[in-house]
Amino acid sequence: MTTSLAALPWEDRREGTREVVWRYSRNPVIRGDALPTSNSIFNSAVVRFGDGYAGVFRCDDRTRAMRLHRGFSDDGIEWEIDPEPIRFVCGDSDLAEFVYGYDPRVVEVEETYYLTWCNWYHGPTIGVASTDDFERFHQLENAFLPFNRNGVLFPRRIGGRFAMLSRPSDDGHTPFGDVFYSESPDLTFWGKHRHVLGTVPNSWQSTKVGSGPAPLETPDGWLLVYHGVLTSCNGFVYSAGVALLDLDEPWRVLARAKPYVFAPQTDYERVGDVPNVVFPSAIVSDDDRLVLYYGAADTVTALAFAYVDELVRFAKEQS
Ligand code: BMA
What is the number of domains present in the chain? Predict the structure, then answer.
Protein backbone atom coordinates (compact mmCIF):
# COMPACT_ATOMS: atom_id res chain seq x y z
CA MET A 1 0.00 0.00 0.00
CA THR A 2 1.33 3.42 -0.88
CA THR A 3 2.31 5.38 2.22
CA SER A 4 4.54 8.17 0.89
CA LEU A 5 6.01 8.93 -2.49
CA ALA A 6 9.53 7.70 -3.09
CA ALA A 7 11.72 9.94 -5.21
CA LEU A 8 11.33 9.17 -8.88
CA PRO A 9 14.43 7.67 -10.47
CA TRP A 10 15.18 10.48 -12.87
CA GLU A 11 17.81 11.95 -15.13
CA ASP A 12 17.23 15.13 -17.13
CA ARG A 13 17.29 15.13 -20.89
CA ARG A 14 20.81 15.80 -22.08
CA GLU A 15 21.34 19.37 -23.22
CA GLY A 16 21.18 19.81 -26.92
CA THR A 17 19.05 16.67 -27.45
CA ARG A 18 15.38 16.67 -28.34
CA GLU A 19 14.14 13.10 -27.95
CA VAL A 20 10.69 12.83 -26.37
CA VAL A 21 11.85 9.63 -24.64
CA TRP A 22 15.47 9.50 -23.52
CA ARG A 23 17.46 6.66 -22.00
CA TYR A 24 19.13 6.44 -18.61
CA SER A 25 22.86 6.98 -19.04
CA ARG A 26 23.67 3.96 -16.85
CA ASN A 27 21.48 1.44 -18.66
CA PRO A 28 20.92 -1.40 -18.39
CA VAL A 29 19.87 -1.30 -14.73
CA ILE A 30 19.38 -5.06 -14.32
CA ARG A 31 21.69 -7.48 -16.07
CA GLY A 32 20.55 -10.82 -17.36
CA ASP A 33 22.75 -12.69 -14.90
CA ALA A 34 21.77 -10.64 -11.83
CA LEU A 35 20.57 -13.84 -10.13
CA PRO A 36 22.84 -16.87 -9.78
CA THR A 37 20.33 -18.89 -11.81
CA SER A 38 19.20 -16.30 -14.35
CA ASN A 39 19.93 -16.15 -18.05
CA SER A 40 17.97 -12.96 -18.64
CA ILE A 41 15.79 -10.49 -16.67
CA PHE A 42 13.56 -8.28 -18.80
CA ASN A 43 9.96 -7.22 -19.67
CA SER A 44 9.21 -6.67 -15.98
CA ALA A 45 6.76 -4.79 -13.77
CA VAL A 46 7.53 -2.04 -11.25
CA VAL A 47 5.22 -0.05 -8.94
CA ARG A 48 5.57 2.30 -6.03
CA PHE A 49 5.37 0.33 -2.79
CA GLY A 50 5.67 1.71 0.74
CA ASP A 51 8.30 4.42 0.55
CA GLY A 52 10.13 2.66 -2.28
CA TYR A 53 9.37 0.34 -5.14
CA ALA A 54 8.37 -3.27 -5.67
CA GLY A 55 8.47 -5.29 -8.82
CA VAL A 56 7.69 -8.58 -10.45
CA PHE A 57 10.44 -9.65 -12.79
CA ARG A 58 10.54 -11.97 -15.72
CA CYS A 59 13.57 -14.12 -14.98
CA ASP A 60 14.34 -16.78 -17.55
CA ASP A 61 16.58 -19.26 -15.80
CA ARG A 62 19.48 -21.27 -17.14
CA THR A 63 17.25 -24.16 -18.11
CA ARG A 64 15.39 -21.40 -20.02
CA ALA A 65 12.26 -21.81 -17.91
CA MET A 66 10.29 -18.53 -17.78
CA ARG A 67 9.60 -17.61 -14.14
CA LEU A 68 8.29 -14.64 -12.16
CA HIS A 69 10.30 -13.29 -9.22
CA ARG A 70 9.44 -10.44 -6.89
CA GLY A 71 11.91 -7.70 -6.03
CA PHE A 72 12.25 -4.55 -3.95
CA SER A 73 14.12 -1.30 -4.37
CA ASP A 74 14.56 1.95 -2.43
CA ASP A 75 15.30 4.06 -5.47
CA GLY A 76 13.83 2.16 -8.45
CA ILE A 77 17.30 1.54 -9.85
CA GLU A 78 19.15 -0.83 -7.51
CA TRP A 79 17.06 -3.97 -7.05
CA GLU A 80 17.07 -6.89 -4.64
CA ILE A 81 15.39 -9.69 -6.58
CA ASP A 82 14.28 -12.77 -4.69
CA PRO A 83 16.25 -15.72 -6.10
CA GLU A 84 13.19 -17.93 -5.53
CA PRO A 85 10.31 -17.68 -7.98
CA ILE A 86 6.89 -16.56 -6.74
CA ARG A 87 4.75 -19.48 -5.52
CA PHE A 88 1.16 -18.49 -6.06
CA VAL A 89 -1.51 -19.30 -3.49
CA CYS A 90 -4.23 -20.90 -5.57
CA GLY A 91 -7.35 -22.60 -4.29
CA ASP A 92 -8.17 -24.28 -7.58
CA SER A 93 -6.11 -27.33 -8.53
CA ASP A 94 -7.02 -26.89 -12.21
CA LEU A 95 -5.22 -23.57 -12.27
CA ALA A 96 -2.45 -24.21 -9.80
CA GLU A 97 -0.04 -25.99 -12.14
CA PHE A 98 2.56 -23.40 -13.09
CA VAL A 99 4.17 -24.26 -16.41
CA TYR A 100 5.50 -20.85 -17.37
CA GLY A 101 4.85 -17.18 -16.72
CA TYR A 102 6.28 -14.15 -18.47
CA ASP A 103 5.90 -10.46 -19.31
CA PRO A 104 4.27 -9.41 -15.99
CA ARG A 105 2.48 -6.12 -15.42
CA VAL A 106 1.49 -4.84 -11.97
CA VAL A 107 -1.04 -2.13 -11.21
CA GLU A 108 -2.61 -0.86 -7.99
CA VAL A 109 -6.41 -0.78 -8.07
CA GLU A 110 -8.30 0.27 -4.95
CA GLU A 111 -5.31 -0.35 -2.67
CA THR A 112 -4.65 -3.88 -3.91
CA TYR A 113 -1.85 -4.73 -6.32
CA TYR A 114 -2.85 -6.86 -9.29
CA LEU A 115 -0.38 -8.86 -11.30
CA THR A 116 -1.22 -9.94 -14.84
CA TRP A 117 1.11 -12.05 -16.92
CA CYS A 118 1.27 -14.43 -19.84
CA ASN A 119 0.36 -17.68 -18.12
CA TRP A 120 0.36 -21.16 -19.60
CA TYR A 121 -3.00 -22.88 -19.47
CA HIS A 122 -3.07 -25.21 -22.47
CA GLY A 123 -1.26 -22.43 -24.24
CA PRO A 124 -0.54 -18.82 -23.41
CA THR A 125 -3.32 -16.81 -21.77
CA ILE A 126 -3.67 -14.05 -19.18
CA GLY A 127 -2.98 -15.00 -15.56
CA VAL A 128 -4.23 -12.71 -12.79
CA ALA A 129 -3.15 -12.54 -9.14
CA SER A 130 -3.54 -10.08 -6.28
CA THR A 131 -1.21 -9.11 -3.48
CA ASP A 132 -1.14 -6.56 -0.69
CA ASP A 133 2.43 -7.05 0.39
CA PHE A 134 4.42 -8.76 -2.40
CA GLU A 135 4.85 -11.67 0.04
CA ARG A 136 1.70 -13.65 -0.74
CA PHE A 137 0.26 -13.66 -4.24
CA HIS A 138 -3.28 -15.03 -4.63
CA GLN A 139 -3.92 -16.45 -8.06
CA LEU A 140 -7.35 -15.67 -9.52
CA GLU A 141 -9.04 -17.05 -12.62
CA ASN A 142 -7.25 -16.65 -15.93
CA ALA A 143 -8.92 -13.69 -17.62
CA PHE A 144 -9.40 -15.26 -21.05
CA LEU A 145 -9.27 -18.43 -23.08
CA PRO A 146 -5.97 -19.28 -24.69
CA PHE A 147 -4.38 -17.90 -26.74
CA ASN A 148 -3.81 -14.42 -25.43
CA ARG A 149 -0.91 -12.22 -24.29
CA ASN A 150 -0.14 -8.73 -23.03
CA GLY A 151 -3.03 -8.50 -20.55
CA VAL A 152 -2.86 -5.12 -18.83
CA LEU A 153 -5.33 -3.85 -16.20
CA PHE A 154 -6.38 -0.21 -15.99
CA PRO A 155 -5.53 1.40 -12.62
CA ARG A 156 -9.18 2.07 -11.77
CA ARG A 157 -12.62 0.76 -12.59
CA ILE A 158 -14.29 2.18 -15.66
CA GLY A 159 -18.07 2.45 -15.55
CA GLY A 160 -17.92 0.50 -12.28
CA ARG A 161 -16.01 -2.46 -13.77
CA PHE A 162 -12.42 -3.65 -13.88
CA ALA A 163 -10.99 -3.06 -17.33
CA MET A 164 -8.25 -4.83 -19.22
CA LEU A 165 -6.44 -4.57 -22.52
CA SER A 166 -5.15 -7.77 -24.11
CA ARG A 167 -3.93 -9.18 -27.39
CA PRO A 168 -5.53 -12.41 -28.64
CA SER A 169 -2.77 -14.43 -30.30
CA ASP A 170 -1.66 -17.91 -31.29
CA ASP A 171 0.48 -20.58 -29.67
CA GLY A 172 3.76 -19.47 -31.27
CA HIS A 173 5.61 -16.29 -32.20
CA THR A 174 2.34 -14.74 -33.34
CA PRO A 175 2.60 -13.02 -36.75
CA PHE A 176 -0.53 -10.89 -36.13
CA GLY A 177 -2.28 -9.15 -33.27
CA ASP A 178 -4.53 -6.24 -32.30
CA VAL A 179 -5.28 -4.75 -28.88
CA PHE A 180 -8.76 -5.38 -27.43
CA TYR A 181 -10.57 -4.00 -24.39
CA SER A 182 -12.64 -6.13 -21.94
CA GLU A 183 -14.54 -5.46 -18.72
CA SER A 184 -15.31 -7.47 -15.60
CA PRO A 185 -17.45 -6.83 -12.50
CA ASP A 186 -15.39 -9.20 -10.36
CA LEU A 187 -12.09 -10.13 -12.11
CA THR A 188 -13.58 -13.56 -12.89
CA PHE A 189 -16.09 -12.99 -15.66
CA TRP A 190 -14.94 -10.89 -18.60
CA GLY A 191 -17.01 -9.45 -21.44
CA LYS A 192 -17.91 -6.34 -23.44
CA HIS A 193 -14.94 -6.99 -25.72
CA ARG A 194 -14.09 -4.04 -27.94
CA HIS A 195 -11.42 -3.52 -30.57
CA VAL A 196 -8.92 -0.78 -29.66
CA LEU A 197 -5.82 -0.74 -31.86
CA GLY A 198 -4.93 -2.56 -35.06
CA THR A 199 -1.74 -2.77 -37.05
CA VAL A 200 -0.69 -0.12 -39.58
CA PRO A 201 0.51 -1.35 -42.98
CA ASN A 202 4.00 -0.37 -44.16
CA SER A 203 5.13 0.85 -40.77
CA TRP A 204 7.02 -0.04 -37.60
CA GLN A 205 3.72 -1.52 -36.29
CA SER A 206 2.68 -3.51 -39.35
CA THR A 207 2.86 -7.06 -37.88
CA LYS A 208 1.26 -6.76 -34.42
CA VAL A 209 0.66 -4.36 -31.56
CA GLY A 210 0.34 -5.03 -27.82
CA SER A 211 -0.15 -2.95 -24.68
CA GLY A 212 2.85 -1.94 -22.68
CA PRO A 213 2.48 -0.63 -19.14
CA ALA A 214 -0.89 0.03 -17.50
CA PRO A 215 -2.46 3.09 -19.13
CA LEU A 216 -1.71 6.38 -17.37
CA GLU A 217 -4.67 8.67 -16.68
CA THR A 218 -4.24 12.23 -17.97
CA PRO A 219 -6.77 15.05 -18.51
CA ASP A 220 -6.46 14.32 -22.26
CA GLY A 221 -7.28 10.62 -21.98
CA TRP A 222 -5.55 7.38 -21.05
CA LEU A 223 -1.97 7.58 -22.23
CA LEU A 224 -1.07 4.18 -23.62
CA VAL A 225 2.52 3.23 -24.37
CA TYR A 226 2.44 0.09 -26.50
CA HIS A 227 4.76 -2.06 -28.55
CA GLY A 228 4.52 -2.46 -32.27
CA VAL A 229 6.30 -5.03 -34.37
CA LEU A 230 7.76 -4.91 -37.85
CA THR A 231 8.80 -8.07 -39.69
CA SER A 232 12.22 -7.43 -41.24
CA CYS A 233 14.46 -9.75 -43.31
CA ASN A 234 16.18 -10.46 -40.00
CA GLY A 235 13.05 -11.16 -37.94
CA PHE A 236 10.82 -9.07 -35.70
CA VAL A 237 11.73 -5.51 -34.63
CA TYR A 238 9.92 -4.30 -31.47
CA SER A 239 9.46 -0.54 -31.05
CA ALA A 240 7.20 1.58 -28.82
CA GLY A 241 4.44 4.01 -29.69
CA VAL A 242 1.91 6.19 -27.89
CA ALA A 243 -1.84 6.61 -28.14
CA LEU A 244 -4.55 8.41 -26.17
CA LEU A 245 -7.73 6.50 -25.30
CA ASP A 246 -11.04 7.99 -24.21
CA LEU A 247 -11.32 8.08 -20.40
CA ASP A 248 -14.85 6.63 -20.24
CA GLU A 249 -14.82 4.45 -23.36
CA PRO A 250 -11.17 3.45 -23.70
CA TRP A 251 -11.78 1.47 -26.90
CA ARG A 252 -12.20 4.86 -28.61
CA VAL A 253 -8.79 6.05 -29.78
CA LEU A 254 -8.50 9.83 -29.53
CA ALA A 255 -4.99 10.11 -30.95
CA ARG A 256 -2.23 7.78 -32.06
CA ALA A 257 1.23 8.86 -33.15
CA LYS A 258 2.31 7.58 -36.54
CA PRO A 259 6.06 7.47 -35.81
CA TYR A 260 7.41 5.31 -33.02
CA VAL A 261 8.47 7.21 -29.95
CA PHE A 262 11.22 4.78 -29.02
CA ALA A 263 12.96 2.03 -31.02
CA PRO A 264 15.97 -0.29 -30.61
CA GLN A 265 19.05 1.84 -31.16
CA THR A 266 21.63 1.06 -28.49
CA ASP A 267 23.87 -2.00 -28.33
CA TYR A 268 21.92 -3.53 -25.42
CA GLU A 269 18.67 -3.17 -27.40
CA ARG A 270 20.16 -4.47 -30.63
CA VAL A 271 22.26 -7.32 -29.28
CA GLY A 272 20.96 -10.03 -26.97
CA ASP A 273 18.95 -13.24 -26.96
CA VAL A 274 16.39 -11.64 -29.26
CA PRO A 275 17.96 -8.70 -31.08
CA ASN A 276 16.16 -5.43 -31.86
CA VAL A 277 13.62 -5.40 -29.05
CA VAL A 278 12.45 -2.59 -26.77
CA PHE A 279 9.50 -3.83 -24.73
CA PRO A 280 7.99 -1.23 -22.34
CA SER A 281 6.30 -2.96 -19.41
CA ALA A 282 6.00 -0.47 -16.53
CA ILE A 283 5.61 3.23 -15.87
CA VAL A 284 6.10 5.05 -12.59
CA SER A 285 5.26 8.72 -12.56
CA ASP A 286 4.64 11.84 -10.58
CA ASP A 287 2.40 14.55 -11.96
CA ASP A 288 4.67 15.70 -14.78
CA ARG A 289 7.34 13.09 -15.34
CA LEU A 290 7.36 9.42 -16.08
CA VAL A 291 9.89 6.65 -15.95
CA LEU A 292 9.54 3.82 -18.38
CA TYR A 293 10.89 0.38 -17.48
CA TYR A 294 11.55 -1.74 -20.52
CA GLY A 295 13.10 -5.02 -21.52
CA ALA A 296 15.93 -4.77 -24.04
CA ALA A 297 16.77 -7.54 -26.50
CA ASP A 298 15.00 -10.08 -24.26
CA THR A 299 18.05 -9.98 -22.01
CA VAL A 300 18.25 -6.97 -19.67
CA THR A 301 16.06 -4.32 -18.01
CA ALA A 302 16.53 -0.65 -18.81
CA LEU A 303 15.03 2.76 -17.98
CA ALA A 304 13.93 5.69 -20.05
CA PHE A 305 12.37 9.03 -19.15
CA ALA A 306 9.74 11.38 -20.55
CA TYR A 307 7.51 14.29 -19.62
CA VAL A 308 3.84 13.31 -19.54
CA ASP A 309 2.66 16.42 -21.40
CA GLU A 310 5.28 15.92 -24.13
CA LEU A 311 4.14 12.35 -24.73
CA VAL A 312 0.50 13.49 -24.83
CA ARG A 313 1.45 16.22 -27.31
CA PHE A 314 3.45 13.74 -29.40
CA ALA A 315 0.44 11.43 -29.59
CA LYS A 316 -1.79 14.30 -30.69
CA GLU A 317 0.51 16.20 -33.02
CA GLN A 318 1.91 13.12 -34.76
CA SER A 319 -1.49 11.45 -35.05
C1 BMA B 1 7.06 -11.74 -27.58
C2 BMA B 1 7.17 -12.04 -26.10
C3 BMA B 1 8.07 -11.01 -25.45
C4 BMA B 1 9.36 -10.83 -26.19
C5 BMA B 1 9.12 -10.62 -27.66
C6 BMA B 1 10.40 -10.57 -28.46
O7 BMA B 1 6.32 -12.73 -28.24
O8 BMA B 1 7.74 -13.31 -25.92
O9 BMA B 1 8.36 -11.47 -24.17
O10 BMA B 1 10.04 -9.71 -25.70
O11 BMA B 1 8.32 -11.68 -28.16
O12 BMA B 1 11.07 -11.81 -28.39
Answer: 1
Residue 39 has φ and ψ, to the nearest 5°, of -90, -35
**If phi over 0 gives left and psi between -120 and 50 gives alpha, with beta otherwise, what is residue 274?**
beta
CATH assignment at residue 118: 2.115.10.20
Q: If DSSP codes are grouped into helix, strand and coil, which group holds residue 258?
A: coil
pLDDT digits (tens, 9 = 90+) for 167-212: 999 999 999 999 999 999 999 999 999 999 999 999 999 999 999 9
Question: How many angstroms separate the CA atoms of 306 and 240, rounded?
Answer: 13
Q: Could you tell me the residue range of the domain that residue 170 belongs to?
A: 22-317
Q: Which of 238, 281, 294 is the best mutation target for the ligand 1 pocket, counting ligand atoms within 8 Å of the beta carbon and taking the most?
A: 238
Give, for ligand 1, the residue of 39, 41, 43, 120 to mutate: max count of ligand atoms closer than 8 Å to Cβ.
43
Answer whether residue 73 is part of any domain. yes
In 3D, which of 316, 302, 278, 308 has the Cα closest to residue 290?
Answer: 308
For residue 11, tell me if it sits in a domain: no
Please give the model's pTM, rounded to 2 decimal places.
Answer: 0.96
3-state secondary structure of 281: strand
* DSSP-based three-state secondary structure for 153: strand
Instruction: List, in sequence order, every residue forming a beta bridge with 127; answer none if it has no partner.
Output: 117
How far is ligand 1, taken at its centre, from the CA of residue 59, in Å? 13
Q: At residue 175, what are phi and psi to the nearest 5 degrees?
A: -90, 25
Q: Which pLDDT band holds residue 287 (cuts at 50, 70, 90)?
A: confident
The answer to the question of residue 100 being in a domain is yes
